[in-house]
């Protein structure tokens, strides 16, 4: 669920705002207040995937992963991917305490029951237009993971898995991701 404030600003103005406890994004120049993640499945999938990715990236010296940070996607767009990754050659963009003014190398969104289509359409289009090289969509309700790679400015599917599949997805092709570990056990 989102609530529009109808307050307009640029990405630079939005990124300069002091921190607060309200989750918001800048969507085409308009500040949009985002509701918190509504499900245990959502939180479980994020933490389990982050655990796998952070461990692998650190061991292989592949860059850094973050969760839920304001991130620049254009002069009028600041979003907060569930997970985001910066490759080693782009870590300079994260210097100091400044929020990055460039999109990450990978965005991961975990779908929520309240808005599963938003990440598949709105954020898909935003990340594609911003030139994010890789985009993953995790659906803990359907127990799927879809990966997309930017080719000639258009996302093409670069991987997919469901249920108990084990997948290898760019930009972490060397990492085996057992999808069963991302799904919260059913009581």
Could you give a short description of this structure?
The chain is of the alpha+beta class and 187 residues long. It is 21% helix and 37% strand. It has one domain: tt1808, chain A (Alpha-Beta Complex).
Describe this protein's structure.
The protein has 187 residues and is α+β, with helices and mostly antiparallel strands. It has one domain (37-182): tt1808, chain A, CATH 3.90.1570. It has 4 helices and 13 strands. It has helices at 11-15, 40-60, 116-120, 122-130; strands spanning 2-8, 24-27, 30-34, 64-67, 71-74, 77-79, 83-86, 106-110, 134-139, 144-151, 154-162, 166-169, 172-178. The strands form 4 sheets. A 6-stranded mixed sheet has the order 4-7-8-9-10-11. A 3-stranded antiparallel sheet has the order 1-3-2, with no helix packed on it. Strand 10 and strand 11 form a beta hairpin. The longest helix is centred in the first third of the chain and has 21 residues, at 40-60. The mean pLDDT is 89.
Write the layout of secondary structure elements.
Blueprint: E1 2-8, H1 11-15, E2 24-27, E3 30-34, H2 40-60, E4 64-67, E5 71-74, E6 77-79, E7 83-86, E8 106-110, H3 116-120, H4 122-130, E9 134-139, E10 144-151, E11 154-162, E12 166-169, E13 172-178
Parallel strand pairs: 8-9
Antiparallel strand pairs: 1-3, 2-3, 4-7, 5-6, 7-8, 9-10, 10-11, 12-13
